[in-house]
Write a structure and sequence with these properties.
The protein is an alpha+beta fold. 36% of the residues lie in helices and 20% in strands. The relative contact order is 0.13.
Length: 489
Amino acid sequence: MTHTAPPPAYGLPNADFLTEAEALLGPRGLTTDPDRMDAWLTDWRGRYTGRALALASPASTAELAALVRLCAAHAIPIVPQGGNSGMAGGATPDDSGTAIIVSLRRMDRIRNLDPGAGQAVCEAGVILQTLHDAAESAQLRFPLTLGGKGSATIGGLIATNAGGTQVLRHGTMRAQVLGLEAVLADGSMLDLMTPLKKDNRGFDLKQLLIGSEGTLGIVTAATLRLLPAAVGRATAWVGLGGIIEARTLLRQLERALGDALEGFEVVPAHCLDSVLAHQPTARAPLGERHAWNALIECASPTADSAALSELMAAGLAAALDDGLIADAVVAANDTQADAFWALRDGISAAERALGPAMQHDISVPVERMPEFILAAVPELEASFPGTCAVAFGHLGDGNVHFHVLAPAGAVRGEWEDSEGKIVSARVYDLVTQWGGSISAEHGIGQMKVDELARLHDPVALDVMARVKQALDPQGLLNPGKLLPALPPH
């Protein structure tokens, strides 16, 4: 039986709260101007739009803590927001207009970067690209990247436990966080910033907050690990006859390239065709069309690009001799490598241009992913005539983006809210049957709350609800996200 509190009775918006909040934050830190708030009321995908009582932008952890205490006193819900680049509506308020959005964008300092320790202390509003640039200037690198690196913030990446294209070697955001600072629901500050390799003082609270989507606390800063800059890089585009062959190639290259292998992305012909049609300047890397493609990258802090390219070419030549692959090209330079990645990064926009679609961020065990794709695609297309199912992405870590495109003539907005919801439920049923997860790296947000309640282990849901109740008894932190609205015990 689930133990949780009933939905909170939120305080009515009132002049006292707004007056006190403005006195605390100043005119730059608080606004109720609809024009200034408008851009932050809709999620990046345009799927969710809400209303807010105000937009708060604290400039420091102390300001945020004071604001949270004020919200707790007035029972004002809080929706934390970073770069507003999330994929599951996790940073968008509901339409009640009772919540405030708390933007962390002003808290954007890199407090310290220690090349000797290989660590950076970043506030939550630091943009991922900014951290990349700062690390590079110190001959280091932050080993997590994704297509939205120009807008995604460190706090948002931690809150959603973001993944990206280097998880195969370096892990998700969890693996990059050495220490954490957060403001809890009562306004107290949790300081776990000191990075210790060994620390057995009870629960690892920073790991509890990572991936909690702002429902247990608001991340304000983190100590992050940095790695030596890559001396060499090698990138290849490979044409294959099938997804089974892609998995076999992955295993062969893991043995041939070892720790240098950082990325292994799969791209079906449909996705590549869409990008080539959508981007007039894009060019296919290979001369012929292939049913499947793999984008492979390796990097090393010691070996140069020439050595890595030679090693990559040798591994691909062996695969070609074995009949495992049909064709391959190793990028001659960074410009060509970046062009390969532009094709991969352009898939979502290209598919979106084709019309309505249901996008799913799912994972199953790596060894089962090819069979899952081969079973799920025809089943879904047969069950929903006119649809087209495509899977692409991070095969190396068992995570693909599984899109189901609507039939021709479907109306955007209408199809997603009708048949599209049925399609998604079926996708999540299949993923669960195959022992997978309905969210690999994008989080639950508000998009998947009901599906999580329907499909997740009831005992796990009960534990999550107990933790939420203990840390946020008023239910003010990001209400309606991640955790289903379960009945009281």
